């Protein structure tokens, strides 16, 4: 079956005046318009194409690369807004529709929003929603403690930054564990720091436990080399000074210099640390 809103690998069945007809193993076919037809091809070749409904609600294939596919999150720009909804630029000729009822707050043309793309069962066309919480669930967790996961920045709160974990669960990175600016929709790697009894998840942007020592130690070494082998930081330094200079927590800094001192790579002085 040809999947709308997803990539499909289809066989070239026949050539017509309007383009190539592509088909799957079940006998379904779809048009690839002339403007997307590759320069060289043969009947029987296979093509990887994205399939969706065109302006006339007909299934159509394209070689254009969409900014989001079915059942995925993405940060998209609203290019048009009217009384029935908003239309997002997702890289294709026909914009992605966000119904008014699926807007977490009223959208404005020109602004970017984190949305979830899905197939509307009634119309069989792709739509999107900025009410992203309905598409994530922490009831049945599929992650484990200290596991490396993919993250999408979804919301900024008083406690920290909410993230979508593996496009499945909600998590939180606390403010005091963030050492660089994050942006809405940004994708990055994180680590499961704590799973609470109520299935709320704390996330770290640095590897957990002993794994955190090595990259932090390397960061301290790099900073020492940039500063002629000396840093005016030590175990009694203000945490804010450590964060400003090295972009890490005081706890990570102390672990790092402890590791470097044990390996005889640095000397710890009253006024700072020195590269040996």
In brief:
It is built from three helices and 18 strands.
Shape: elongated
Number of helices: 3
* Poorly predicted segments: none
* CATH-defined superfamily of the largest domain: Winged helix-like DNA-binding domain superfamily/Winged helix DNA-binding domain
pLDDT averaged over residues = 93
- Using the 3D structure, state the CATH architecture of the largest domain: Orthogonal Bundle
* Main pleated-sheet profile: 5 strands, antiparallel
The N- and C-terminal alpha carbons lie at a distance of 65 Å
- Give the topology string: H per helix, E per strand: EEEEEEEEEEEEEEEHEHHEE
Strand arrangement within the widest β-sheet reads 3-2-1-4-5
CATH class descriptor of the largest domain: Mainly Alpha
Number of strands: 18
What number of domains? 4
**Named CATH topology of the largest domain:** Arc Repressor Mutant, subunit A
Radius of gyration: 25 Å
β-strand percent reads 35-45%
Q: What structural class do the secondary elements suggest?
A: mainly beta
Multimeric organization: single chain
Key words describing this protein structure:
276 residues; mainly beta; OB fold (Dihydrolipoamide Acetyltransferase, E2P); 4 domains; 5-stranded antiparallel beta sheet; 3 helices; 39% strand
């Amino acid at each position: 079956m040809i999947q709308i809103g997803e990539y499909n690998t289809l066989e070239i069945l026949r050539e017509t005046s309007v383009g190539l007809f592509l088909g799957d193993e079940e006998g379904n076919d779809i048009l690839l318009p002339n403007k997307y037809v590759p320069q060289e091809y043969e009947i029987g070749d296979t093509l990887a194409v994205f399939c969706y409904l065109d302006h006339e609600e007909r299934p159509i294939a394209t070689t254009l690369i969409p900014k989001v596919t079915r059942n995925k999150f993405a940060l998209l720009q609203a290019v048009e807004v009217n009384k029935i909804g908003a239309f997002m630029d997702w890289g294709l000729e026909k914009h992605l529709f966000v119904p008014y009822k699926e807007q977490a707050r009223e959208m404005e043309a020109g602004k970017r929003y984190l949305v979830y793309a899905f197939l509307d069962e009634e119309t069989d066309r792709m739509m999107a929603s900025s009410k992203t919480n309905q598409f994530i669930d922490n009831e049945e967790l599929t992650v484990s403690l200290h596991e490396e996961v993919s993250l999408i920045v979804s919301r900024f709160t008083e406690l920290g930054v909410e993230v979508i974990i593996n496009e499945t669960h909600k998590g939180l990175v606390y403010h005091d564990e963030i050492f660089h600016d994050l942006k809405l929709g940004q994708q990055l790697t994180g680590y499961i720091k704590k799973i609470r009894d109520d299935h709320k998840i704390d996330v770290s942007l640095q590897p957990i436990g002993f794994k955190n020592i090595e990259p932090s130690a390397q960061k301290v070494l790099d900073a020492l080399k940039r500063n002629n082998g000396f840093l005016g930081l030590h175990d009694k330094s203000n945490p804010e000074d450590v964060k400003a200079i090295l972009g890490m927590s005081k706890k990570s800094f102390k672990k790092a210099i402890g590791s470097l001192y044990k390996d005889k790579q640095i000397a710890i002085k009253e006024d700072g640390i020195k590269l040996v």
